[in-house]
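G., before I forget:
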Amino acid sequence: MSVDTVKQPNWFSRLAHPGQFLAWSRYLIWPLGIATALSFAIGLYFAFFNSPEDYQMGDMVRVMYVHVPNAWLSQLVYGVMAVSALGTLVWRHPLADVANKAAAPLGAVFTALALYTGALWGRPTWGTFWEWDGRMTSTLVLLLIYLGIIALWRAFDDQLKAGRIIAIVTLVGALNLPVIKFSVDWWNTLHQPASVFTASGPHMPISILTPLLVMMLAFTLLFALLQVVRMRTEILRRRAETLSRQAALGATK
Amino acid sequence: MIGEGAHFEFIAWAYAGVLVLTVGLIAYVAWDARRVKARLAALDKAGIRRRSAGARS
């Protein structure tokens, strides 16, 4: 076979090689950390000192600046995991199951925070911390799916086999995402309909939308930062486990 | 600007909870990364390293 006919890996495959990923992703950590800290500083300044009260909810509107970003991330992180699951099953991508495993605890925490802040927002505005309505129940189901996936990752020693099984579970669980999104349209719920991501644009004044978008950016950058660090950690963990296994095998020979 | 209105405690609990869990998450991720690096360093010290790493050194 001549050299010309050997198929060279494309740039995406080269970037996604675990060793290459470790090499280039280290340069993301500090910029992401600084951008995250700056976004939180600006977002919190707007949230507490430079945004008005809502004409109905008063200062309770400020809970929205932490509730909506966490609710957004609870679904975005699962979306990332669903794409990773496709990467595992369809392309056998070497980093796909690493990304899935890294994202699951992050998604679980963001979902738990969405439920927690939603309950605290609900008590004064609806008169209850919890109601078994479509949005809240489907978000609770999402949290249970995250916890199930974390448990599955811990249950398997063979991470490659685990990756394929968890990819299928992740894709089945992704059916819950449209249920969360459209639950407020399909059923009568206490939860208000979508007011940021709508076909006709956001339904809120710019003075409230600005801090909300900055806080959403801050939380999204935080997720990106933690995801990169966790993916690097997972690659190194697998490397350490392989070395430990090889050393143990060598010792028994 | 925020005032200490009727529902101030709900706002305070919401932000405090987010702060505690978010800082806890960051601390856990940093601790886990440090632990794995320490494990690799210990293996390296014991002379157990990847062949490619050995070839470079």
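Residues 51 and 57 of chain B are 10 Å apart (CA to CA). Helices of chain B lie at 8-45, 51-56.

More on Monday.
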